[in-house]
Design goal:
Chain lengths: 241, 283
Amino acid sequence: MHNFIVLLLGEIERMKKYGILAASLALSLIWIGVLHFTEIQDVTAFFPFLIFIDTTSMAILLVGATMFYEKQEGTIKSLLVSPISKSDYILAKTCANILSNLETLAILYLYALFFKEININIIGLLGAVILISFFHSLIGFLLTYHSRDFTELLMGMVKYAFIFMVPVILEQTGLIKNLLAKKLLYLIPTKSSLTLLQATTRNFANWELFLSLLYLLLGSSLLFLFVRLKFDEYAVKGGGV
Amino acid sequence: MFQVNNLTFKYPKNKDNTIKGISFSIKDGEIFGLLGPSGVGKSTTQRILIKLLDKYSGEILYKGKDLKSYGKQYYQEIGVGFEMPVHFSKLTALENLNFFKKLYRSPADIDKLLTLVGLDEDRNKKISEYSKGMKVRLNFVRALLNNPQMLFLDEPTNGLDPKNARIIKNMILEFKNNGGTILLTTHLMNDVDELCDRVAFMAQGQIKEIDTPKNLKLKHGQRKVAVEYKDEVIKTDSFDLDSLSTNEAFFNIIKTKKIITIHSGETNLDDIFIKVTGVENNA
């Protein structure tokens, strides 16, 4: 536990020093711009979509960015010969990511609260962001394992967005109406993610909430075990040790 | 400290074994040199010993226990000095060391180490502002950060000027004198000569020779003495070392000629490197 805290604090410090938090903050300002320039005064329905895009895509990118820095500077080698476990390493990165996503959430929520109208279950939203960010940070690990450089990771993230994020947004905006297609969306994690976020603004059927929650909890657990299992392979191949 | 028996290793994507059944031991308190040209399996052997690679066959005992039975706590006892820089470039040297220091149970005195390697005044500089030599010295400090009992060093003086190389070599010797054990990988045969108690030469994934530098030089050298002297013109004669005490011609030259140089036929480690591994030492 002690070394997990050391690693987490180290992650946060490096996210500051390497400008990763600043980039995340800059993106928050862009989202504020989006909120500001929409004509909508009540952003309740729109808000989960912004958080959805930020929590999923930024979680993937932030993990990738920190891991590629470690690879580039050789610090992964130094970490690998330190008395830390794979779980400590993976959890420290995912938790640092979650904190960054929560920072964005706080900024956007405060803006919406003071300058727009918003009616949202903030506690529920916090829980949803933590779970979604955790899941997608682990997706970030997997994409990084299979990418040679940051550009390849970006390409992987774009593919993920096209395959998993766009269909869910299209369905929510009413562009996908086919019942079978709608049902098939329950197979992908982004559907569960958006459902949990939207459930903080409107009512959903209990079974749908339960299914989404179960999907992400179970998915995160399995993904964590898989990321942990594949870590050694990455360390030898990607870490250049 | 280490007993390695019939160690064999193959990278998953390779057809052949990188390490082909090597056996050696590293005694407590010795400096053991692992030498050989690039690609012969030195680094792989070191990676296995520092538990970065674990799918090997054969047996490795550390302090009499199977290396595989050690968990992450193993890293409380060993220090690893990498050849290439391993520090966060946007953090200062002190920030880097403080971060890693917190991971250990009994950390070393950072101030003392930085002073010893001459980086005390640059402790608050970012690593991106460090020269190559400064990064090499900081790598050495990183390796000593947990007061290790066993030190793995890969080219510890590579890229250092003679003054700083001397400082690092003295620190290595001091570490040994305090009871520490070291596995040293280097291409610099002068360092090997100066530091190593025993060396192993590797080629094609196997250990070709293993002995003390002194014994290797005697084994591969010629038991001859070459005398260069002035006799109207400069001449050189060679005499058998074993019968030197009864060699009249030798004594005659010594007594009557002006001697310019006398050399025994002892070879050097560079020549042994080439002879044993079959490859020029290009480093």
